[in-house]
Write a structure and sequence with these properties.
Structural class: alpha/beta
Helix content: 40-55%
CATH class of the largest domain: Mainly Alpha
CATH architecture of the largest domain: Orthogonal Bundle
Number of helices: 6
Radius of gyration: 27 Å
Distance between the termini: 91 Å
Largest sheet: 3 strands, mixed
Strand order of the largest sheet: 2-1-3
Shape: extended
């Protein structure tokens, strides 16, 4: 009997080593997955540019002191509204993403309650205005501007997806918030020069 137990011990040790090895592999896989997710979040974040101490943001609409405010890199829409004196009593923040980070030369407009939401003209909108749309970050805003400069204005809003500027599912989320063609009073949009993507 003792000899049988001795012969069984190497097999038990081998099984234990295999189990420990599998546990280590599983733990490493989980750590790698989490690291990949964190890297993805960092890529999407609007991180402040190194070496920039302050930025200027134009805050208008239903705030107590509308105008250009001096903010810090990494500040969010809620922060620049506070710098503009805070919200006016008639302010409606529902359409805003108060947690979105702002960048230099951004325009933040706080709508008033009951105010009809104006459609954003994708043929004259700045990159900052495009980025304020849900699901449109810096990359898609730049792609929209690049496509309209390359091939001319979007004759309809459907062209945003049809011409490959943004994916179809992103377009579906904003289609009721935008206008195309020559909407918005952009004169001679078929042959005119485009306004700066960062300015008015």
């Amino acid at each position: 009997m003792p000899s049988l137990l001795r012969r069984g011990r190497p097999g038990a040790r081998a099984l234990l080593q295999i189990a420990l090895g599998l546990a280590i592999v599983a733990a490493l896989a989980i750590l790698a997955l989490r690291a990949g997710e964190q890297r993805g979040i960092e890529i999407e974040a609007r991180d402040p540019r190194p070496g920039v101490d302050e930025i200027r943001v134009d805050v208008s609409g239903a705030v107590l002191r509308p105008g250009v405010v001096t903010a810090s890199p990494g500040d969010r829409i809620a922060d620049v509204i506070a710098l503009a004196g805070g919200l006016a009593p008639e302010a409606d923040t529902a359409p805003l993403n108060l947690s979105r980070r702002v960048a230099d030369e951004d325009v933040v407009r706080v709508p008033r309650r009951g105010e009809a939401a104006a459609l954003l003209d994708v043929n004259s909108a700045t990159t900052a205005e495009l980025e304020a749309l849900p699901g449109i970050g810096a990359a898609y805003a730049a792609a929209i501007v690049a496509e309209r400069e390359r091939a001319g204005p979007f004759e309809t809003t459907d062209d945003l997806a049809a011409r490959g500027a943004i994916p179809e599912h992103v377009y579906e989320a904003i289609r009721d918030m935008i206008a195309g063609g020559c909407a918005g009073g952009f004169r001679n949009c078929r042959g005119g020069r485009w306004p700066s993507s960062r300015g008015a």
